[in-house]
Amino acid sequence: MAALLVLICLVIPSILRAQPSREDQLIVEKYSFGDFTDAYRILIHVQKWVYIADRAQHRILLFRDGQTDPTTIGGYGWSPSSFDTPSGIATDGLNIYVADYGNHRIQRFDRTLSLISSFSTRESDNRQARFGYPTGVALSNQGDLFILDSENVRVVRFSPRSLPLGSFGEIETRARRLVKPLKIGVSQTDRIYVLEPNRLVEYDPAGNFLRTIGEGILTDARSFVIGTETFLVVEPWTLVVFDGRGMMQRQISRDMIAAERPVGEFADAAIVEAQFYLLSRHRVHVFDLADIVRGSSRE
Questions:
Q1: Phi and psi angles of residue 52, each rounded to the nearest 5 degrees, phi first
Q2: Which of 121, 160, 188, 279 lies 20 to 30 Å (CA to CA) from residue 272?
Q3: CA-CA distance, 294 to 299, in Å (whole number)?
Q4: Contact 291, 29 (CB under 8 A)
Q5: pLDDT, tens digit, 9 for 90 and up, residues 196-209
């Protein structure tokens, strides 16, 4: 009996030390900003300007240099200065590209949101060049434009001169075929990632299927962000952290977040240097990136 008591005394403290405390798990907000109706996508420019796509108001908002009063463009319509459900936003460092879902086009702006050009191919005779109801847009390091074509359920690729370079995602085997593409992103090594509700699909720069991440774990993914050797997937009430191998490392639920104001349903996220931007439907919440990925090896 004495030996058993000694063993218990040794084991219990070890178990307690192995379990992260509530304080260790808590993610504390640094600050927040914005007041949106239905924010859907966030983009951080290299100058740390913040762009928000608000679907309900059909507009793009720009917060520059810590300003709380944003520059706003758009409103519902089909004119060059209007949107019908902006559903994706990307940058090449100079220009801002917006996927204008209901108008079947990609709008290109300068960084101050002055319109430069509009790109649409839905009426093209070339089937390989057509896209409709774009849900996302991304650019490679070489300037190639990737558009999520939800009408034809595929990715369409264009050169920097807007020449069609083919498509992928629509003719693969059933397990590899896209079903409901929501967002597209390109890594620093030009790997292409397409998010669907239950998985993140990875392609090489030529559009060849490589692997999926998160199948069996993700059920209602809304967005993702590519970090340094990590992928962070946004679900409505949870952040899911995967390592570079695609193994889940951590899940962060809303009740693990301490914020000045209540955090609403998650919509999108962005990483800039050491900061993590979490976009809820109504506000942007900013955290230290280290707090998001810390302890992932033990989760």
A1: -125, 130
A2: 160
A3: 10
A4: no
A5: 999 999 999 999 99
